[in-house]
Amino acid sequence: SECSSNEKDLAKKYITLWKMKWGTTKEIVINQEPPLSGPLQDVDTCDNMHSTKLVAQVRMMAKTDTITKKGYLYTPENTDDYWVKRWFVLRRPYLFIYESQKETEEQGVINLASVRVDYKKDLEDMLQRQHVFAIYTNNNAYILQAISRQEMQDWISK
Length: 158
Prior knowledge:
Blueprint: H1 5-19, H2 46-51, E1 69-76, E2 83-91, E3 94-98, E4 106-111, E5 116-118, H3 121-127, E6 132-136, E7 141-145, H4 149-157
Antiparallel strand pairs: 1-2, 2-3, 3-4, 5-6, 6-7
């Protein structure tokens, strides 16, 4: 079904908000020290509440040797018009993202434990790109583009 003009405008607004940068790298708190025992100091101060935006949960996970699929996909980078080619490796339950097929340094990892993979023609029309699909996690959404329809269907089915 066709989207109305209002629906397209709303979808564009959501994508613009989704791509916005919130904060700077200087605001990311990296601390490897264990928490202090006893009551927390200055918990209710505005400075303390403002400085801690998000707290990450990190776990060391061993990679499995079983690769379900690997290949290049395109993903948007900062602006609507610039998409970068990245090497993706599917080792269930994770999708690893690398700069190239050398797989030397991970650019990112997506936990696929509870995701929804979706293809909608309307998304392709709005982005003016073919073979586009999305992965929705509890915390984020990832838009990816395959080089062909067959390749897109293969990624979606895995």
